[in-house]
Amino acid sequence: MSFTPELNMAVCEFNLDSGCNAKESLIEMANNKISLETFKEHNIKALTMKYVNSESMMWEARKIVRIISRLEADEHQSRVAPKRSRSPGSTSPSASNSSSSSSELSFDMFSSKRTVPMKVTSKPKRVIAQASRTMKPHQQESRQESAEKDRANDEKLKKFIESRKLKEQAKKAANIQKCNEVKEAVMFPAKRMKKRQLEQYAYRFK
């Protein structure tokens, strides 16, 4: 599974809010060959609670899991589609080339090795297009629903991040104002004492 721009963005948002490196955690999971199902069942909190004791980070962790599962489903669909399109007795070299090139280009998150592609061609795109054509109507509907849910969750997440930033800014402004008030309260008596001393010295030397 490749780290797409969408997944990278989700990981970056998580990193900014939690102060940890989610990408390193995901690669560590891949090296230890932990399955995605195990991650969903047991370790949704592991990515958050390992670094931050806050339930609000669950949004970002779940978003990362959703993107990963969607990418895996797309990859699985693109692998299955060429096998279905083949006839029982014939083997087409173009299909085999496309499947091999797609497997070369893909990075399996749950294996410790990365495969380096020899040639980059446009064949994997054709395979993905063919897979989308073979999808059933209910599958398309469920996919649309999941996409809408993801959009709604993304909007909620953006609003939550914005509100938290505004709160932090307001808190900083209040702290600065308090500090200034304390400084003035402390400095005022000192200034007054200094003025008195100067007046006394001036009176003595008259």
From TrEMBL:
Query: Disordered: where is this region?
Result: 75-154
User: What segments bear the compositional bias annotation Low complexity?
Assistant: 87-112
Basic and acidic residues composition-biased segments:
138-154
Name assigned to this protein? TPX2 domain-containing protein
Q: Which organism is it from?
A: Caenorhabditis elegans
* Record lineage: Eukaryota, Metazoa, Ecdysozoa, Nematoda, Chromadorea
